[in-house]
Design a protein that fits this description.
Organism: Rhodococcoides corynebacterioides
Largest sheet: 5 strands, antiparallel
CATH topology of the domain at 2-93: TATA-Binding Protein
InterPro entries: Alkylbase_DNA_Glycosylase/TA, DNA_glycosylase, HhH-GPD_domain
Keywords: DNA damage, DNA repair
Radius of gyration: 19 Å
Structural class: alpha+beta
Order of helices and strands: EHEEEEHHHHEEHHHHHHHHH
Number of strands: 7
Region (Disordered): 1-33
Number of helices: 14
EC number: 3.2.2.21
């Protein structure tokens, strides 16, 4: 199945979809040298592989394979950022003003796939990204299904909640996932059908629903809402570096989480949009934080 979308404003597939990529070897996401982006997903009607290309700044071509193709096509405008609404975003800081002026093609996409965004977010809790990405790759490759269609070698579809719920504890252990994160994934899988409705909820209600799952806090809820809902206000409070980066970038000194929340309050409901503009523009200041803490390997204890 092929669909061609024409937008009335510039788009950037690379920037819009980059938050969904979990490391260079993510089995659900590949970017090829020709610029095409391949992804997999699992819908109620079945799995899909899709390839997205951007012939021009306002055109997106999607080729889709798999039983869930028709269902996926309905989500395509939201995925590529065509439904993103920046109304009311009026930053005053010169850096954010300049970033918004330069990056008119940066939009926030939404997958509508809550559980698919939740599992990798849980894996990234309080660990180095490289370790979380390795865990995600191992578990999806081990328990997922082969990508339908002519997908690049090694691509796979993330397992459904019922499979995640039955992943043995020793398999999480082999994937370097500690018992707490493993329990959170299993608990979320048990109530996955109750999490899906957050795509139609307000920001606050979606957060409350997600945080009913033991092990999901404010940071994880924000990471899920950013990707699944395209929530422009989902600020990742509790991130290891974010408050310091915001502080150094906008006021020239590090901030605590509370200080960051207070400083960005005037930008509601677009706090995450401001963060993405800083990230993509290259204007974020990222001071050296000293020696990196060692990567914890849970497989040997």
């Amino acid at each position: 199945m092929r669909r061609v979308l024409h937008s009335d404003r510039p788009l950037s597939l690379r920037h819009t979809l980059s938050p969904h990529r979990r490391g260079r070897s993510d089995p659900t996401h590949r970017t090829l040298p020709d610029g095409s982006i391949w992804r997999t997903s699992l819908f109620a009607s079945g799995a899909v592989t899709y390839r997205l290309r951007q012939p021009s700044r306002t055109e997106v071509v999607a080729d889709v394979w798999g039983d869930g193709a028709e269902e996926f096509v309905d989500t395509l405008p939201g995925l590529v950022g065509m439904l993103d609404d920046a109304t009311g975003f009026a930053p005053e800081h010169r850096i954010l003003v300049e970033a918004a002026r330069r990056l008119t093609h940066l939009h926030l996409g939404r997958t509508g796939q809550v559980f698919e965004a939740l599992v990798p977010a849980v894996l990234e809790q309080k660990v180095h990204g490289v370790a979380a990405f390795a865990s995600w790759r191992r578990l999806v490759t081990r328990f997922g299904a082969p990508a339908p269609g002519p997908a690049p070698s090694g691509m796979a579809v993330s397992p459904p909640p019922d499979v995640w719920r039955r992943v043995p504890s020793w398999e999480f252990h082999r994937a370097n996932v500690d018992p707490k994160r493993a329990r959170t994934i299993v608990e979320a899988a048990r109530v996955a059908d109750k999490l899906t409705p957050i795509v139609g909820m307000t920001h606050d209600d979606a957060y409350r629903r997600l945080r009913l799952v033991p092990g999901i806090g404010e940071w994880t809820a924000a990471e899920v809402c950013q990707r699944a809902l395209g929530d422009a206000d989902a600020l990742s409070v509790g991130d290891y570096h974010l408050a310091a980066v915001i502080g150094w970038s906008l006021v020239g000194a590090p901030m605590t989480d509370d200080e960051m929340v207070a400083y960005l309050e005037p930008l509601r409901p677009h706090r995450y949009r401001a963060v993405r503009l800083l990230e993509v523009s290259g204007m974020a200041v990222r001071p050296k934080f000293g020696p990196r803490t060692p990567i914890t390997d849970h497989r040997f204890h």
